[in-house]
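Homework help thread (please don't just give me the answer)

Our assignment gives two proteins as sequence + structure token strings and asks us to describe the second one. The first is just a warm-up. Here they are:
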Amino acid sequence: MGTTANSNLIDEFRQWVLTQTSPNYRMFVSEKDENVIVIETSYCRGEVTFFPMDIIQLYVLNLVTNRHVFYLHFQMHTLEHAMKLFDEMLECVKELTAKPPVRVLLSCTSGLTTGFFAQKLNESAQLLSLNYEFSAVSYGNLYQTASQYDIILLAPQISYIYDTAQKILHNKKVRKIPPRIFATYDVRAIFSSLEPLLEPAARHTRSYPGRLPLKQQIKPHVKILTIGLLHEDNHYLFTSRIYNEHNDIIYDEVSIKSRISLEDIYDLCDMAFAIYPDIQLTGLSMPGIIDEGRLTLPAQGFDDSNVLECLSKKYSRKFILCNDANCIAVGYYSSQDRYHSPSFLFQPAVGSSGGVGSIINGQLIEGYKHVAGEIQYLPTNSKSNRCSLCLTPEGTLTLVAQSIASMICILGPDVLLLSCRLIVQTDDLIREIGKYVPTKYIPDIVQLDQVKDYMLLGQMILCTEALEAAKA
């Protein structure tokens, strides 16, 4: 376990964890490794692992879906903080002490007929002791709600959206209800059709991508830590990566939590600094308006919060804070040599307002108080308009086309980059943009499915430029 200054705290925390027994789960020290404490239910496996340098790993794996629902590393500093993180972990374990029901969402035009069918299905499931939970939703709320369910069933009247729904909800099992079964409310036929869908999911594995190509040699000459935040389904992913002086990736970690706070960023920094104390600069990429190190992201509890000052005071190190869309635009621009003025529209979550990052002739556009790209303030993107449009693919197509039309008219980019779950066909988008802008002015449109690598690369490049500017 090591003999660091915090060894006594580590031992105290370990003993405390072993006292947190419950009839709802099994807890034991692994026979294979005494540094691992296992917490198990029939439907999940959690582990508390103690590493050298006072680093502790916590994770919970949902054995039904084979996906991590909680995953993080942190360095031991205070017993109170370690206990708090363990309690968060236990919340996930407790949710999986009983077998989670298979959650099935039915959808039709208004949700009325599927609502009645869902009621019948729930009654029959209870009578037959089947572990299902059925709900119904209107088509207008399907994509906003689907992330909470395992299987999606489409009523005959909206079966025409099946191909689109499959592409958008690619991590869900989407099926059409046959008209005969729907017309007769044949609950047994539904149960029979669900059985083949309950095969165990493929085990979720983490992959570490290689280095993106660069159109020019960019070498930071020092070690740089980059941290980025992404929202996936109902979880938040913190990704942290370290580039060495040769631009090689020497460290790549992911944390998964259901909520975020400044303390989560501290934990990522603590671990990275413990392993690589010679990190010269840390870049943090987050959504929201970032001006002079202050972050405005009310949905996550940041209201003109001086994040940069908090980090700088805590660690006495140099940090920079950047908008995520800007970082992605920089990362893409630097990894290819075909386009010189890309604009990137980032709308990752259903029902949310997007953000734009733009580079014109090699220059990142941030604007007065860094408000450039905050398309939430466009008249066409007003809250009332956004709420009525951005829940469905059809409405999102209109909203995104209007935003892109504004980008074309004001910035004139030579390529439009798009990350938006609800848009699967660029041809449809081009036709919609053509309602506002003559087709000859519409540039190439490139869809980016994976943005993490561009974001972290862009953050590294912005850190490198900040170091060069400081030397000048």
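The one we have to describe:
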Amino acid sequence: MSAAPHELVRSHALPGVTALALDSARHYGRHTHDQYGIGLILAGAQRSASGRGPVVAGAGELITVNPGEVHDGIPLTGARRWQMLYFDVELLRDDDGRLREFTAPVARDVRAAGLFARLYACLREPGARAGQLAPQSLLLALRARLGACSGAAADAARIDGAALAPARARIDADPAAQHRLDALAQACGLSRYAFLRAFARLTGLTPHAYVQQQRLHLARRLLARGEPVAQAAADAGFADQSHLTRLFVRDYGVTPARYGRAAPPR
């Protein structure tokens, strides 16, 4: 099985963007990202579950992932090859401060694929050769082409999630802490059983799995700042470096050490 990415680049042209190219037969388990993702399948095909329904994507098709969306990835024809761009959420915030959501998890659109290819190439340019205007313009054009919008489903999710907001806020504020189920449930005014059911229904994850995802996101940010893997594992609340490495590879397809080395020179 081919498991390692053949390219991992943190953009010089537009901070907050990571470009990832993979050629892999890996089966990715259910996980989330704390970033937006847009990708282009170059060869092969894959099936995945998402918060917006099942997805089947093949060569020439674009896939999108929203922050916090539970998804997986299963190859349909052996190895598949694809490129992904992950964007920190602030990069897609509207002028009015709103964060929007991609409504279509997969799209076949020649023009959008062309915009993606130009953006991917632009973001890989060294900082001295590419300013921010070009990638920002391409990103906005691509997002518009893919129909990013905040629809009724996103608004409903915000309303339904109000009861669980205290627990999620506790976890998000300090994912490395040792959170207890009874304390999280009590913060929401629910029994442990009702809290578990409501949390899984809203997020697609158990509270424990959600904490693990938030710890992974924290570790990724620490690694991007140049923190050593062992220290990032400890600071993010993992039992040890091997625990972080196992989960990081499972969800991202790359070791924490390799991800850290991809950080641009300071």
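TA reply:
I won't write it for you, but here's a hint about the kind of observation we're looking for: The longest helix spans residues 207-224.
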